[in-house]
Write a structure and sequence with these properties.
Elements: H1 2-9, H2 12-15, H3 21-33, E1 42-43, H4 45-52, H5 56-68, E2 72-75, E3 79-82, H6 87-106, H7 116-130, H8 134-150, H9 155-174, H10 178-197, H11 201-229
Antiparallel strand pairs: 1-3, 2-3
Length: 231
């Protein structure tokens, strides 16, 4: 927990003079999405409040917001914990991703598309893989899909998917071999990017739909195995 709090203290400057529960929840959501707080982690009010320099009431409101987003759970007389997903949660996450991400690509309109951020996410994943940092590859993969959604130019869609991608990170934490999980999607991200660079949004949508179907099957397979083997 000390390492996470040290990193969290770096986010204190982001709060500025407009510190609100919503801004605190943004920071914590981002940290969950980046993998700083694994599923089952108890979040210390004193530790996190001190790292961010916010009041207990502000932090509790932020916890409430993230509980509503299904990222945290409050356990009576025990505290607040990062949520541990069920298999059904994982299936629903992918159902939502397929509905939204495929619709975004389908609705892009005429090319060319603004793909710099998407291309940067592909490069980020390749660089992380070259460094054998497969947790970072998973983060880059989430960045790729976040930037894919951002192509819609919709703040509401971005907000909806922000918490979905944070939940997805919780699912990734259960996977015991991130290398095997994430490596195949480095090439598939490149394929989607190339299709969009060529202006082929329908081809990109087909690639994406197959991608998400295959990813769901793989993650659920691993998830079921881990859940079945849990004491």
């Amino acid at each position: 927990m000390a390492e996470q709090l040290t990193g969290l203290a770096d986010d204190r400057a982001l709060l500025g003079r407009t510190s609100t529960a919503e801004r605190v929840s943004d920071i914590l959501r981002s940290r969950i999405a980046e993998g700083y707080f694994p599923p089952g982690t108890r979040l210390s009010e004193d530790g996190i409040g001190g790292a961010l320099g916010v009041s207990r009431n502000t932090l509790r409101e932020a916890f409430r917001l993230l509980t509503h987003e299904r990222l945290l759970v409050h356990e009576l007389n025990r505290g607040v914990f990062v949520r541990v997903l069920t298999v059904e949660d994982v299936e629903d996450i992918y159902r939502t991703r397929t509905l939204v991400e495929c619709a975004v690509v389908r609705g892009l309109g005429d090319p060319p598309y603004a793909l710099d951020a998407l291309s940067a996410a592909v490069t980020e994943g390749q660089r992380a893989a070259a460094g054998d940092d497969w947790k970072a590859v998973g983060t880059a993969n989430i960045h790729f899909h976040r930037e894919l959604v951002a192509l819609a130019g919709s703040a509401r869609t971005d907000e909806l998917m922000r918490s979905v991608f944070a939940e997805l990170r919780l699912a990734f934490h259960v996977v015991d071999d991130p290398h095997a999980l994430h490596e195949p999607y480095l090439a598939r991200n490149r394929e989607i990017l190339r299709a969009l660079e060529a202006g082929d949004r329908y081809g990109a949508e087909r690639l994406l739909e197959t991608y998400l179907t295959d990813s769901l099957e793989r993650v659920v397979e691993v998830y079921r195995r881990r859940v079945d083997s849990a004491p």
